[in-house]
Amino acid sequence: MKQIGKKLGGLVSLGILTLSMTGCMGSQEEINETVMNNLYSTTTSTMETLVAYDNATMEQAIEENPNMDDFTKSAFQAWMDSSEELGAYIGFEDVDPQEAVKKDGSNYVVDLEAEFENGMADVEMVYDSKLNADSIGFSPQYTMGEKMQSAVMNTIVGLGTVFIILFFLCYVIDALKFVPGWVDAVGKKFKKQQPGETQEAVETVQPVQTPAAAPEVSEEEETDDLELVAVIAAAIAASENTSPDSFVVRSIRKSKKNNWR
């Protein structure tokens, strides 16, 4: 697996070395023809080497080579992300390097049109100002029908999401009319529970109170008065030699002084 990364890296390094030697021959404003040819051939060779690997092989190569260079790792990742959608590689359209190689600021960009099992794709490889390979990417080409289908699906999904949200909001707003009734019901239920709680509290406290001492005191006073009357009657009867049965006991009421003149 280490040879896979080395093979792709060596291929790119060889192209970079060739480009570096020929790059000095061109001016900064125009791309030298030799540089364009080398960029084009390096890009096509790199692409065809890359698309020959399957995902499992590339994943294993990345795991077993922690020191793999950034370009090779990013190239593997780019092809793994696109291989399932594009399918197997068939070939590319060979064009004039002048049409494929462009300069974007200080970078060089090579565009290729490749054919895959599931359709065409644009392959773009970017080189920095020192002609070092920087990145490679795969962009599937979609027909007008596929674009329209994708647009329709996106529209349907968007409208469906909007309608679902609106339906939910309408449901929430409609449910708000039940809130006042619910609040009133809870308030009435709370008010009904309060008197019951008060009555229970009173009933709980009442057994503690024992106001039953007063009647006992009055009964004791009446008993003492009767005994006193009996003793007095017996004493009077003994002194007069008469029977105490003929005595009549009357209660004495105290009159107010204001009634006397």
From TrEMBL:
It is found in: Cell membrane. It comes from the Bacteria. One of its GO terms (molecular function) is sodium ion transmembrane transporter activity. It holds the Pfam family OAD_gamma. The chain crosses the membrane at residues 151-173. Signal peptide: none annotated. Residues 196-223 are annotated as: Disordered. GO terms for biological process: sodium ion export across plasma membrane. Keywords: Cell membrane, Membrane, Transmembrane, Transmembrane helix. One of its GO terms (cellular component) is plasma membrane. Its main location: membrane. This is DUF3887 domain-containing protein.
